[in-house]
Each structure stands twice: as C-alpha cells, then as structure tokens.
From TrEMBL:
This is Peroxidase. Keywords: Calcium, Disulfide bond, Glycoprotein, Heme, Hydrogen peroxide, Iron, Metal-binding, Oxidoreductase, Peroxidase, Secreted, Signal. Substrate binds at P196. InterPro entries: Haem_peroxidase (IPR002016), Haem_peroxidase_sf (IPR010255), Peroxidase_pln (IPR000823), Peroxidases_AS (IPR019794), Peroxidases_heam-ligand_BS (IPR019793), Secretory_peroxidase (IPR033905).
C-alpha cells in the first residue's frame, strides 16, 4: 500500500470527533439532472471505515440535554416534524436555506438565534445575509410552540432542530439535538462579515472553522451541504468570464460544465444548483462532482485540489454512508458552538424576531 493510503486514513481518524449521530432511515435515490452518466468508484478510490463513539448525555459539559423539554414541552418534536414536513412539501428548496441559516447563526456569537433578530443593524440586515431564507418557517413553529408551551422553547433550539428535520426530509441523516440553549440579545450586522461567502481560500476556511472549534474534517463534511440548494449566478460569474482578471474562465472548471454554466448564468440575477447532478437529493454526489471538476463555488472545487482536504474528499466520494453519518456528527458539533445556557445568559424569546420587552 502507498504512503498516501496511510496518510488519508490518518487524516480521517485524526479529525473524527466522537458525537452521537445516527441515521435510522436512509433513502436511496438515482435522480440525474445534469447528464445521464453513471458515477462509480474507481480502483484508486479507497473506502474508509470510521468507528465513531457516541456522546452520552451526561458528558455534555455545557448543560445541554437531549431530554431538556421532555416534561416542559413533550409535544416539541411532533410539532417540529409536522411543521417542517409541511413547509418542505410546499418548497423543497427551503431545506438548504435552513441549513445555511443555521450555519450563519452559529458563525456569529455562536448558536444563539441572533441571526433571527430583525432590527436596524442586526446580523439579518448584513450584506452576507441578504439571500438568507427560511425565517418564516421558524416563526411558524415558534408561534405554535408559544400556544402549546409558552415561554419555554428557545428560538436557538428551534433553529437547530429544524435544520436536522429539513435535512432528513431530503434523504439526509438524522442526528440527536441536545436542547437547552438560550437566545442571545445582541445582533450586529458588522459581525456577520466573518461568514464565508464562497470566495475564500482553503487556509482562511480552515482557520475560520478552527476558531469555532471545528476541524478540517468538519469543513469538508459540512461543505457537503452543497449537495442541495442553489447559488446566485452573480456570485460565480467571475469564474465563468474573468477569473483573476485574466479575461478567461477558471481553468479548473470542466469544459462541458463550463458551457452549461455560461448558458445558465447569462444574468447575475439567475440561480443555479450547487449540485448539477442530483440537486434535490441529499447524497455524496457533491464530492463526485468535485472529482469531475464540477464544483460550483471556488471554495467547493478547492477542497479537491488542496492537499489538506483532497484525501477527505476522496474518502467521502468513495463511501456514501460515511458522508451521511459524518454529516450528522459535524452538524451536531456545529449546533453546539458557544451556546448560552446559564440563567444570566440570554433569554427565551417569545418572538424570534425581537428581544423580550424589559
């Protein structure tokens, strides 16, 4: 065996974090929208097996608990499941939007629901937040919970759980969400400028994730959320026509895919799927696309060309079950960033758009 095999295996194990995550109801899909080519693993693709330990509830050192609302709001999960299912059935694109909304929230001041606050100068008004969607889903669920369990369930907890349920609705993994987060009272637009927007280099992405307590593996796995969702053509036109001021397209884009994108993105206001092959299915085809030079955002494609991340891309490309399992693990970690749990930290908002009246 080559030294690259052992390096790849070592990378996977080094960056694996033990968090409780399971997927009891995986679904199989074979939808194709870009072309009809079948994607299969090649001999050089190594299959990796991860042994991920579970995180017992008693080991959560930040006072979060999987059964936090068991007595105070026992109908929480059923309300969440029903509402999310209704919204996704009406608009399946909301699943990706909710994942992105959760990521933006946790990226600034931790997972405190601060992205939901709607006032002048809040994170929600920042330039990086202009295309965020899904606020109405959170508002709908919060309104129902206020009827059933007044002043009990935080907006931060709702957002974390809704993200999980929306992922499951599109065939993604289930993961256990520990509850007990409080809602933050501070939301500042300027602070939202730190959220990655798809133009960064790998070093800055790694540093950003590490600043949040996340690993390189988390970066590669969470980028896999781009297996669903869309991007505005305006955010990628520089890759299509004038990459780095050359007046030419980005040479890392597959020629056939480039032709497709140039026809699709004549106007900046148009939208294009992040995964050109199975855009409505949560699967590992995102990583297959990277190997075929079909990453839509430059940050996507760089994951395959950078030595620090390419081995992980190959592992996730070769093993669909590995991606789904590890996505649940990494999402559980994401939802646990800088949470507010003490009595004097934050509050339980009665309306997710505003802090409570004094």
């Amino acid at each position: 065996m080559s030294k690259y095999f052992f390096l790849s295996l070592l990378l996977v194990f080094l960056y694996t974090i033990s968090v409780h995550a399971i997927n009891p109801h995986e679904k199989n899909y074979d939808e194709k929208s870009y072309d009809d080519e079948s994607f299969t693993s090649t001999p050089e693709d190594t299959v990796f097996t991860l042994k991920v330990k579970t995180l017992d509830e008693n080991n959560l050192d930040n006072l979060l608990s999987y059964g936090y609302y068991r007595k105070s709001c026992p109908q929480l999960e059923s309300i969440l499941h029903r509402k999310v299912k209704e919204w996704i059935e009406k608009d399946s694109t909301l699943a990706a939007s909710l994942i992105r909304l959760h990521f933006h929230d946790c990226s600034v001041r931790g997972c405190d629901g601060s992205i939901l606050l709607n006032h002048d100068g809040s994170e929600r008004t920042a330039e990086s937040s202009k295309t965020l969607r899904g606020f109405e889903v959170i508002d709908d669920i919060k309104a129902e919970l206020e009827k059933q369990c007044p002043k009990t369930v935080s907006c931060a907890d709702i957002l974390s759980a809704v993200t999980r349920d929306a992922t499951v609705e599109l065939g993604g993994p289930y993961w256990a969400v520990p509850y007990g987060k409080n809602d933050g009272k501070v939301s500042i637009a300027k602070e939202a400028e730190i959220v990655p927007m798809g133009h960064e280099n790998i070093t800055s992405l790694i540093e950003f994730f590490q600043s949040k307590g996340l690993t390189v593996l988390d970066l590669v796995v969470l980028s896999g959320a781009h297996t669903i969702g869309r991007s505005s053509c305006g955010s990628i036109q520089y890759r299509l026509y004038n990459y780095k001021g050359t007046g030419k397209p980005d040479p890392s884009i597959d020629p056939k895919y480039l032709n497709f994108l140039q026809r699709k993105c004549r106007w900046a206001s148009e939208y294009v799927d992040l995964d050109a092959t199975t855009p409505k299915t949560f699967d590992n085809v995102y990583y297959i696309n990277l190997k075929k030079k079909m990453g839509l955002l430059s940050t996507d494609q760089l994951l395959y060309s950078d030595l620090r991340t390419s081995s992980l891309v190959s592992a996730l490309y070769a093993t669909p079950s590995l991606f789904k399992h590890q996505f649940g693990v990494s999402m559980a970690k994401l939802g646990n960033i800088q949470v507010l749990t003490e009595e004097d930290e934050g509050e339980i908002r009665t309306n997710c758009n505003f802090v409570n009246a004094s």
